[in-house]
Specification:
The protein is an alpha/beta fold. 34% of the residues lie in helices and 18% in strands.
Length: 692
């Protein structure tokens, strides 16, 4: 257990569970995560290993005896008949039989229907009428010769969800965590290992929770396959439902004209449409028109009287092309079905999550740490839907007056949602609020910038804000910083020609939060060696040592690298890759001395020395002499590269600028080529000593 796990168990006793236990007990049971964690929360909400193992066996036994597998439905029915009564775990849905004026329940896996259920239970749990609810139920069997009477009797039923929670205790416990610890706790709750992701990546994924905490929030996420876009909406909360985008109809989503039965938006907090993308998909235009009105006005109508609902709408789908391809040839909404590829629909989206930044989920990314029992957090988030935090930034910042009302609403709702998730008590520092405000502006800007590609009537918008001291802060999307030649196109403009695109593969420095003299996003650091200060955003790609350092190393015969953290294998590999850059930059006839100053690895010093020795051996015969020394005091903190030609390159992260990638996969582009790796947020400063 980590120190964070200890704190989680101390602050939230009985409300957390170890996330790897879900995989341990699930087996082949097709049960939502919140169902399993409900059971694990009953028997394994502890940090005592013996109690956990005992609880796991109990949960396994409950699932073995009571969870209904479709292929074993006949056996369960037989058990009910022979014993007269049997407890089951199944998804129950209810329909009104208008002929008999009774409610009848159907059991999805057990395969029985027309089971009478009293109206009081239906009124208490109205979601039984739409989509169904996972429940623990007692089923009885009483045969009768009357063919109109079913032998199946519902003895008792309990939805699998928390019955109550203490919100004040939640707020008090939250105050015992730092912001980073709280983000990691939420990230572990979702099921991922926070050590495998950077801060921006964590926040982007936590933005998927906003629809659960904000009413009538419209979110879209498009990206490559396998990035976990739909996971939260299918597994995380009993208050959300995930349906295939191709299966949705007007009666199912809104209301049936024939029966007057209310659709999904009337009963669920979040309705997510999966597999939403696909140009060739057939879509009902009437559905799109009603959906557009609902997303804008929170109401819908198929008759005389308009109806209102609070469900947030989520659209998730896969993209087929890379981001630069879409920006060059079409736009970031290119994959939408034709009926949805409409400026009025797109303009109603509050934010666009860049799914391509998340990356394909690998097995080692899942968490073994502690997180909330997801149903507990789901109830907390639902409680927070009653609050509005959209104005909390105003004491520190002012949005640009250029931002329209619809744009402002999108920014406000995203900001409010993230504030509730991260700072439920409302206490955030100005820097923390600024980070959230930037994400909110970026998400809406991504929508608006693509709209300007679709429709010439949309004007340019200044997505910026000002600090109270009057300092203006401009916000850019990451893909805007990476691909400026592709990004800034208006509707009707021709795609850039090959001549115009020469040199666009150069990495662009992202706009610095507080730009230093000489720093600009519009200048590539490889145009010519010159002094300057550049900032790169987390998840940015296209950054290589050749482009960052190559021009500054040309002609150098002595190069000193100072970095206290050259210990782990990937850090030593970074040194080797820098030496490869030096080998490319030097003349074959030159000899270069490269000296590394670092600190000894306190865990495996012998392996560290072995790896550094392997670099030295590899350099023999290529005109490079590699040496190293360990700082005995272990007090060096500065990280920089100094050449005998007068250049000093200061690096706030040293050489460790890349996020984790597949080190052992010889067929991974990220393994072989640096430009395909995502970077951490970092800064680099180039200084020239004119006396050198």
């Amino acid at each position: 257990m980590t120190a964070l796990d200890d704190k989680i168990n101390e602050r939230f006793p009985g409300l957390v569970v170890r996330k790897d236990l879900v995989k341990a007990v699930k087996g082949n049971a097709i049960v939502p995560t919140y169902v399993l964690e409900y059971l694990l929360g009953q028997y394994c909400a502890t940090n005592d290993e013996a109690s956990i193992q005992s609880g796991i066996e109990t949960v396994r036994e409950i699932l073995r005896k009571h969870y209904v597998h479709r292929n074993e439905a006949g056996l369960i029915k037989s058990n009910i008949r022979e014993k007269g009564r049997w407890k089951i775990i199944d998804r129950i849905s209810v329909a009104l039989n208008e002929k008999s004026d009774t409610y009848e329940a159907s059991f999805a896996n057990l395969g029985i229907s027309k089971v009478l259920i009293d109206s009081g239970t239906v009124k208490t749990h109205p979601k039984l009428l739409v989509g169904g609810v996972w429940c623990i139920a007692d089923i009885e069997y009483d045969y009768t010769e009357d063919k109109n009477v079913t032998p199946w009797i519902l003895g008792s039923m309990k939805p699998i969800q928390l019955s109550h929670f203490d919100y004040d205790a939640y707020l008090e416990a939250r105050n015992g965590f730092t912001t980073d610890e709280w983000i990691d706790l939420l990230f572990q709750t979702v099921g991922f290992d926070p050590e495998m992701f950077g801060r921006r990546s964590k926040l982007i994924q936590l933005m998927r929770l906003i629809p659960f905490v904000e009413r009538n929030y419209n979110l879209i996420e498009l990206g490559p396959k396998g990035t976990g876009k739909s996971h939260i909406f299918s597994e995380f909360s009993p208050h959300g439902i995930l349906i295939s985008g191709g299966e949705v109809t007007v009666p199912k989503l809104f209301v049936s004209n024939s029966s007057g039965k209310l659709g999904l938006v009337g009963y669920w907090d979040v309705v997510a449409l999966d597999e939403f993308a696909g140009k060739q998909k057939k879509v009902d235009k009437a559905l799109v028109d009603i959906l557009k009105n609902y997303m804008a006005n929170k109401t819908f109508s198929r008759g005389v009287e308009p109806l209102g609902a609070e469900a947030s709408m989520v659209f998730v789908g896969n993209t087929k092309h890379t981001v630069p391809y879409m920006l060059k040839n079409t736009d970031l909404f290119d994959e939408l079905p034709d009926k949805y590829y409409d400026s009025a629909f797109i303009d109603r989206l509050h934010t666009y999550i860049p799914g391509w930044e998340v990356g394909v989920i690998r097995g080692e990314m899942f968490s073994n740490g502690y997180g909330f029992v997801v149903d507990y957090l789901a109830e907390i988030l639902r409680h927070l839907r009653n609050d509005d935090y959209s104005d909390r930034y105003r004491s520190n910042f002012d949005l640009s007056s250029d931002i329209s009302t619809r744009d402002r609403d999108g920014v406000h709702k995203t900001f409010s949602g993230l504030m509730k998730i991260l700072f439920p008590s409302g206490e955030a520092t100005p820097d923390e609020m600024e980070e959230i405000l930037k994400l909110a502006l970026e998400g809406r800007k991504r929508v608006k910038d693509q709209l300007m590609r679709l429709d010439t009537t949309y004007p340019e918008v200044d997505f910026s804000f000002s600090r109270k001291n009057g300092e203006k802060v401009c916000v850019a999307t990451l893909e805007e910083s990476e691909f400026p030649n592709f990004y800034h196109r208006r509707a009707g403009a021709a795609a850039p020609s090959a001549v115009e695109l020469i040199g666009t593969d150069e990495p662009r420095a992202a706009p610095a939060p507080e730009p230093s003299a000489g720093a600009t996003a519009a200048v590539s650091v490889t145009e010519r060696p010159k002094a300057g200060h550049f900032t790169f955003n987390e998840n940015q790609k296209g950054v290589t040592f050749d482009k960052l350092f190559g021009p500054y190393l040309v002609g150098a015969q002595k190069i000193t690298i100072t970095d206290p953290y050259i210990r782990a294998f990937h850090q030593v590999r970074n040194v080797m890759e820098l030496i490869e850059t030096i080998a490319k930059a030097k003349s074959p006839a030159d000899e270069v001395e490269v000296h590394l100053v670092t600190c000894v690895d306190g865990i495996r010093p012998e392996k560290q020395a072995e790896n550094l020795g392997a670099i030295a051996a590899s350099c023999e015969g290529v005109g490079i002499s590699f040496t190293w020394e360990f700082d005995d005091t272990n007090t060096i903190h500065a990280r920089h590269i100094v050449t005998d030609t007068g250049w000093k390159i200061a690096l706030d992260r040293g050489l460790d600028i890349f996020q984790q990638y597949e080190l052992n996969d010889a067929f991974s582009f990220a393994n072989r080529l640096q430009q395909f790796r995502s970077v951490k947020a970092f800064e680099v400063i180039y200084l020239m000593n004119n006396s050198a």
